[in-house]
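Encode chain A's predicted structure.
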Amino acid sequence: MPSYAVLGATGATGGNILKLLITDPQNTINVYVRSKAKLVKQFPAIEKNPNVRIFTGNLSDISLIASCLEDTDAVFSTVASNDNVPGTHIAQDTAQSIVVALMDIRMTKPQVKLPTVVWLSSGSINKKFYSQAPAFVHWLLVTSFSYVYTDLAHAQEYLELHREWLKAVYIQPGGLVEDKQRGHTISTEKEQTFLSYADLAAGMIEIAETGGYDWQGVAVNPSTKGTKIEWKVPGRMVKGLTFHFFPWTYFLARKLHLQ
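Encoded structure for chain A:
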């Protein structure tokens, strides 16, 4: 039976991955979340599913993360932030926890095959992908989400340090939106905006199942037209630009309970 771990299962990407995985009774799934109550609210029947084990706690709890990852074929790492928070390091924290947990498994059970890390990243930090976009558009994107992309880049640099024994694939889509599943394609040559979280989830599962993409940047693209445009993105970009050029405004917004 295929076995998977999903880190960040209450987020848009992780939730859609979990939704698809639990439809197949052949799958066994380990789910890591910080809030079990939030998970159960999204998936009311999940506690009764015999193929699902729930792991709740802090990402820094290496013993917990190791238990979640052990005996799985692939780990979907979808812990992320869409807000351009100054100094954010959630991706780096996640990468470190995964690596240390897998190192712990490797040392205690050297005969066990380690899972492939299916790492959610962004096409905006893959030169092959972003060089196909107009320079100004790319600048606008990377500046609006500068702290997020810097965090992702540093996290990937950390993962790369462990290529000798670790397997990972970087999922690097374009802009993501809330929409229904319409169909997807997989590409190592280009990315296309916009893509629904549901199609991204299906693509990530396909990549995990087929394999063959170790240490590559892979885009999941829409296979049909009609993906809904997310009109709140421009507002998020304006906020991100403000936080990039004037980081103090983020902390002021937090103090005033506006963020």
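The chain has a mean pLDDT of 94.
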